[in-house]
Amino acid sequence: MFKKILIANRGEIALRVIRACREMGIASVAVHSTADSDAMHVRMADEAVCIGPPPANQSYLLVPAIISACEITGAEAIHPGYGFLSENEKFVQAVQDHGLTFIGPDPEHIRLMGDKITAKDTMKKLGVPCVPGSDGGVPTLEDALRIGEEFGYPVLVKATAGGGGRGMKLARSAEEMKNAFRTARSEAKAAFGNDEVYLEKYLGKPRHIEVQVFGDGKGNAVHLGERDCSLQRRHQKVFEEAPGPAIDAETRARIGKVCAEAVAAINYAGAGTIEFLFEDGEFFFIEMNTRLQVEHPVTESIFGVDLVREQIRVAAGLPLSFSQEDLQINGHSIEVRINAEKLPNFTPCPGRITAYHAPGGLGVRMDSALYNGYSIPPYYDSLIGKLIVHGRDRPEAIARLDRALGELIVDGIDTTLPMFRDLLRERAVLTGDYDIHWLESWLERAN
Ligand code: ADP
């Protein structure tokens, strides 16, 4: 097992990894920008190294600085968290070239899944159901119009390098395709330096269902059921739950098996998430994330496993610590993402926290790097905390979430907390009867 791990991240996810390290008897190294000298991950780690000025591209994304920090401290492995360098194959290659271990999959798997066209192609060959669409890239508007006619509108134009909903445009008719095709390409070019796009049939009222998988890198893999992350704003998840209210045990076992077999077949190592749209009882693959997800705690809650510990074990060459049969669902879990944003427009709202009190009690977990007097810097993501609850069933989890939201105090800045109190009064949320468009239209109605 590793003696020392460096965490190439900040905020709640850095704390999450430090906690796993401590329980495993592994020393932790934090890295930070000058804006984060007072951050909780710096205080909580065994050692900390300042790696640059506030902008992420001069610190948290600066590969030579992170590798130097490993060499200075003697860290043997790097946990990337999510975001930043977690799905950057060049970073992983550099880490390995320096004789260090990357806690995550091989660079070739990151490359394979990072390009959405290759990802879809691979998944299709592995027997995973995909959204019907163009097979591969669509080079010209003429091709796009021809395929649009073939599939029938509405059609979604998507960037092969896409992420965070960028480079994605809806075309409801041939007329709209002209504009959608052009803007998706220029957006993709600007955001990712790659203007290749592909087409997908647009699904009208799907749920976002994602399957958690775990591989040992040697051809063995398991699945840990699904998460329903349909409640999204601008393609960003805000409320996630497991198990999915629309998925029964038989459906779970069926799609889970397909996913586990697919990642086993490519010798995938570590945690991965296979994302689907789910409509009328059918699954359609959209993408695979080759890292730990923000919402991983809901899966941990219902299976009683530590996914970060498992990532570290697999990276150290150990076998999976659970078999498919060991993985039994216990109860229901919900996570809400609390952002430093001002409602109703979700304007980023960094600033000083004058009072912070985390909720507690049975079945409540608060993953946050906040503390009294902390100043949230304006340079990074606005996620300031994740409130995760676990109950024996969905109604108990909802009641617990309502109770915990009432206990949570974050003073000094505006947050998205009030939205969750309101959401828990909505029938669709109480019954679990929602799709990926529900939250946006609810927000529109509320404004
Ligand atoms: P990104 O990587 O940019 O987040 P995804 O492919 O994961 O892009 O899609 C993000 C979100 O966009 C999905 O969760 C879903 O809400 C919506 N979406 C993607 N593909 C389709 C589709 N074919 N039909 C309808 N909605 C879609």
Task: Describe the fold and architecture.
The protein is of the alpha+beta class. Helix content is 35%, strand content 28%. It is built from 15 helices and 22 strands. It has helices at residues 11-23, 40-44, 63-73, 89-97, 107-114, 116-125, 141-151, 174-192, 249-265, 296-303, 307-315, 394-407, 417-423, 427-431, 438-446, and strands at 4-7, 27-33, 47-52, 77-79, 101-102, 155-163, 166-171, 197-201, 207-216, 221-233, 236-242, 269-279, 282-289, 332-339, 341-342, 347-348, 351-352, 355-357, 364-368, 375-376, 383-391, 409-411. The radius of gyration is 21 Å and the shape is globular. The mean pLDDT is 97. Adenosine-5'-diphosphate (ADP) is lined by residues 131, 156, 162-165, 168, 200, 202-203, 208, 232, 235, 275, 277, 286-287, 436. Residues 131, 156, 162-165, 168, 200, 202-203, 208, 232, 235, 275, 277, 286-287, 436 line the site of adenosine-5'-diphosphate.
> What is the radius of gyration computed over CA atoms, rounded to a whole number of angstroms?
21 Å
Distance separating the two termini? 53 Å
The helix count comes to 15
Let me know the number of strands.
22
DSSP strand (E) fraction? 25-35%
Strand order of the largest sheet: 13-12-9-10-11-14-21-19
Uncertain runs = none
Bound ions, cofactors and other small molecules, one mention each:
adenosine-5'-diphosphate
How would you describe the shape? globular
Average pLDDT number: 97
Helix content: 25-40%
**Main sheet attributes: strand count, strand direction, barrel closure:** 8 strands, antiparallel
Structural class: alpha+beta
